[in-house]
């Protein structure tokens, strides 16, 4: 059987990783505890269930051909104990050593996954109170994007969302079989040539858009310019989280227009403005910092863990605007322009360029590409939609879910957001050395929502 090679984008995420800049996604789930042994039971269930999920038993290894490529293969020595970990405080039981799990998640997010094993981990942590515990999931970006990681994690819970491929959509024509026999290759040449010309044109268009986006002036150091943290080649990470009422977000959307996502991005812009002002940092001049907004290109019914299907939009955050409504209008206008152009065009579509690079180029150019993130964007703001289900693990109900995004080299801050059970959860990840006051940014998000609600009420 021929090996299953990593797609070009998956390979890119695998190659750009370094010890100081691990490329894994995360999700911090806070669950109810029905007894002192709830965390230990959850860890045992995770270990039992992961052994039965093929997508979590595969590791990545280099291959000889094509040169520079990598492929998936089953781990012959798979051991759940190397992937599921129970923290001492959680093992002690509910009410013993309860801590803020977000504080514990920071150092864990800083630690790279073992590249010789299936690239994922689950850490069962003490919860914020005697009636709770938490689970931090880590999935390498080469394994899955946000939606793919969610699908993989769903297989570990008591109830699995309907991620399996659904029935065919009516009206879709059946694929036409490829011609075979003598002369078939020649007959396909015009189509192949047209495809190559289209790919080259797309690559040139994206490259030109990136050049036009330019490196902005006046972006505060809090948003960029993070150097590797202290220690033996390891970076440092801090994690913060904030839960907001979705009803209040919808109140703003109904009063001011746009989408829920527009409002969530505008809240980030306002919170950054507040936070920088409280720090005494100068506000950005002109068009503002560039936010990379990932866009999923995953088709409905795609198999769980089917790698990355991503593009993105590049959006200027209007931090110079002092009025919250005008900030929202600016975000909405920018997102509308991005949507009109589509996710396959524009400076935010840089992920698509990975498809035009030979595997050897990913291997040799990975470190160089990793250093280019700061030239492409200033902050990552990503949304991971969750299904409208209540997740449980061994009878313990998931109460909160904070998505966590990776930090590329030169980036100080990444913001991810998900909506779960009528609550918007912001997950904030920062370079702990560059951003020592991440909790203040979470507070600024709360203050921004409160001010916006007063504005539209």
Overall average residue pLDDT: 81
Helix fraction by DSSP (H/I, runs of at least 4): 25-40%
Uncertain stretches of 5 or more adjacent residues: 163-182, 184-189, 191-200, 228-233
- Name of the CATH class of the largest domain: Alpha Beta
- Total number of distinct structural domains: 2
Q: How many strands, which pairing sense, and closed or not: the largest β-sheet? A: 6 strands, mixed
**Assembly of the depicted chains:** single chain
CATH superfamily of the largest domain: Nonribosomal peptide synthetase, condensation domain
CATH topology of the largest domain: Chloramphenicol Acetyltransferase
**Global morphology:** globular
Q: Beta-strand level of the residues, as a percent range?
A: 15-25%
Please provide the ordered H/E string of secondary-structure elements: EHEHEEEHHEEHHEEHHEEHHHEEEEEEH
Counted by DSSP, the helix tally is 12
How many whole angstroms does the radius of gyration measure? 22 Å
Decide which structural class fits the backbone.
alpha+beta
SSE layout:
Elements (H helix, E strand, L loop, with lengths): L3 E2 L2 H8 L8 E9 L5 H13 L7 E5 L7 E5 L9 E3 L1 H4 L9 H10 L9 E7 L5 E9 L5 H9 L29 H30 L10 E3 L10 E9 H11 L3 H20 L10 E7 L13 E7 L7 H18 L17 H12 L2 H4 L2 E5 L8 E2 L2 E9 L5 E2 L1 E8 L2 E9 L6 H19 L1
Helix pairs in contact: 1-10, 7-8, 7-12, 8-9, 8-12
Structure overview:
This is Diacylglycerol O-acyltransferase. Residues 6-263 form the O-acyltransferase WSD1-like N-terminal domain. Helix 7 (246-256) crosses helix 8, helix 7 (246-256) crosses helix 12 and helix 8 packs across helix 9. The chain has 12 helices and 17 strands. Mean pLDDT is 81; it is low at 163-182, 184-189, 191-200 and 228-233. It is globular. The chain has a 6-stranded mixed beta sheet with strand order 5-6-7-2-14-13, with helices on both faces. The chain has a 6-stranded mixed beta sheet with strand order 9-17-16-12-10-11, with helices on both faces. It folds into 2 domains: 4-154, Chloramphenicol Acetyltransferase (2-Layer Sandwich); 196-384 and 410-456, Chloramphenicol Acetyltransferase (2-Layer Sandwich). The chain has 457 residues and is α+β, with helices and mostly antiparallel strands.
């Amino acid at each position: 059987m021929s090996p299953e090679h990593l797609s070009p984008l998956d390979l890119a995420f695998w190659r750009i990783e370094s010890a100081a800049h691990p490329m894994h996604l995360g999700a911090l789930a806070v669950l109810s505890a029905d007894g002192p042994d709830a965390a230990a039971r959850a860890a045992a269930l995770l270990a039992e269930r992961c052994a039965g999920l093929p997508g979590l038993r595969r590791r990545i290894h280099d291959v000889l051909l094509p040169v520079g490529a990598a492929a998936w293969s089953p781990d012959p020595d798979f051991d759940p104990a190397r992937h599921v970990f129970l923290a001492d405080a959680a093992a002690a039981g509910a009410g013993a050593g309860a801590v803020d799990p977000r504080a514990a998640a920071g150092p864990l997010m800083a630690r790279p996954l073992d590249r010789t094993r299936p690239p994922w981990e689950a850490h069962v942590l003490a919860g914020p109170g005697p009636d709770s515990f938490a689970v931090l999931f880590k999935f390498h970006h080469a394994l899955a994007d946000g939606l793919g990681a969610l699908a993989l994690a769903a297989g570990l819970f008591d109830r699995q969302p309907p991620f399996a491929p659904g029935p065919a959509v009516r009206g879709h024509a059946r694929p036409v079989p490829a011609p075979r026999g003598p002369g078939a290759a020649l007959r396909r040449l015009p189509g192949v040539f047209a495809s190559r010309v289209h790919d080259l044109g797309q690559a040139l268009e994206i490259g030109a858009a990136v050049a036009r986006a330019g490196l902005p002036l006046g972006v505060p150091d809090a948003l960029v310019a993070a150097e590797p943290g202290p220690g033996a080649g390891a970076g440092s990470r801090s994690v913060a989280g904030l839960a907001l009422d979705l009803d209040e977000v919808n109140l703003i959307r109904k009063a001011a227009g746009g989408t829920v996502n527009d409002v969530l991005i505008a809240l980030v812009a306002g919170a950054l403005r507040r936070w920088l002002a409280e720090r005494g940092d100068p506000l950005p001049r002109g068009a503002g910092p560039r936010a990379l907004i990932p866009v999923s290109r995953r088709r409905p019914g795609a198999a769980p863990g089917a790698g990355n299907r991503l593009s993105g939009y590049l959006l200027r955050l209007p931090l110079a605007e002092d009025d919250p409504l005008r900030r929202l209008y600016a975000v909405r206008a920018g997102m509308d322009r991005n949507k009109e152009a589509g996710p396959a065009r524009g400076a935010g579509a840089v992920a698509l360029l990975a498809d035009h690079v030979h595997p050897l180029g990913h291997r040799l150019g990975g470190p160089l590409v990793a250093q280019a993130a700061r030239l492409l964007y200033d902050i990552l703001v990503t949304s991971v939609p969750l299904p409208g289900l209540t997740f449980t693990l061994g009878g313990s109900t998931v109460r909160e879910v904070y998505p966590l995004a990776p930090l590329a080299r030169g980036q100080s801050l990444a913001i991810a957001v998900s909506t779960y059970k009528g609550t918007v959860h912001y997950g904030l990840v920062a370079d702990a050395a560059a951003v020592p006051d991440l909790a203040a940014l979470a507070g600024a998000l709360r203050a921004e929502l409160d001010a916006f609600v007063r504005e539209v009420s």
